[in-house]
Specification:
With 105 residues, the chain is mainly α. The chain has a domain of 59 residues: lambda repressor-like DNA-binding domains (434 Repressor (Amino-terminal Domain), Orthogonal Bundle). It has six helices and no strands.
Amino acid sequence: MSVYDSIINGLNEAVDYENGKVKDVKVDHVKVASLPRFNGEKIKKIRIKQKMTQNTFSGVLGVSRKTVEAWESGRNIPCGPAQRMLELMDMDKDILEKYAILSRQ
């Protein structure tokens, strides 16, 4: 089957599903926790709890040090993925080591 035919077939299956023509599809319903919103003070507390400099913290989160400074001063707020990562770091202080994101020597 060509790529074109595969795409058309998939689109037709999606249309059939949406129109109720497909009955034997298992659907799981999930609930996603709402996205937290951390303010500058809380972000700084998380960083300090993790025993990191702004430079190290920025490397872990994949942002610049200036971005971390802006978050902590309240000039800016983190976007969704950063908020979720901050939530995980706040919930589990060892998460970075568990997943080899950070190693302390």
